[in-house]
Design brief:
The protein is built from 6 helices and 2 strands. It has about 160 residues and is mainly alpha-helical. It has a two-stranded antiparallel ribbon. β1 and β2 form a beta hairpin. α2 crosses α4 and α3 crosses α4. The model has no long low-confidence stretch (mean pLDDT about 90).
Length: about 160
């Protein structure tokens, strides 16, 4: 297609290699993740008005209190700006608290407040139940295999990707 034949609703072919998104693993994982996260978000969004990044911050701090915002970003693989916005909103709503780190007054750490723990303790069992329903379509053996494969991709697979430079 020449530039003069371009039409906004027509796909532009710039090469002979066509990537079929419907078969592209990262795309499929992303779509599944977005759909699952969206379904789970209804549980805490309707009840507490929380966004997905806010819920992830709450969950991480419930398990690992005393992290900095940067450490939350690293642990969740969320963009630092998204984490920063979520932290600001959670602080504003009283779900988390920020404290100065012991000896290093320049470093602040985050922890759940009593209200934040209440949200977590209310929503976490609901999230676990929805996850159980999602996984119920798999046999126990398939579930174990999926867990092993995800772990292998997250560890050795990502290392292998990084060597493509």
């Amino acid at each position: 297609m020449s530039p003069s034949e371009y039409h906004p609703s027509s796909p532009v072919r710039t090469s002979r290699v066509l990537l079929d998104l419907e078969q592209f693993l990262p795309y499929r994982i992303s779509v599944l993740s977005n759909r699952v996260s969206g379904n789970i978000a209804k549980l805490y969004g309707d009840r507490y008005g929380l966004s997905i990044p806010e819920w992830r911050v709450i969950t991480v701090l419930a398990l690992y209190p005393g992290l900095s915002a940067s450490e939350v970003s690293d642990r969740t693989a969320m963009d630092k700006v998204a984490v920063s916005r979520a932290v600001a909103r959670l602080l504003e709503r009283g779900f988390i608290k920020r404290e100065t780190h012991g000896d290093d007054r320049r470093r602040s750490v985050l922890a759940l407040s009593a209200a934040g723990f209440e949200v977590y303790e209310t929503v976490a069992p609901l999230v676990m139940e929805v996850t159980r329903k999602l996984m119920s379509v798999l046999t126990e053996e398939e579930e174990q295999t999926l867990e092993k494969l995800i772990t292998r991709l997250a560890d050795a697979g990502l290392v292998q990707m990084a060597t493509m430079d």
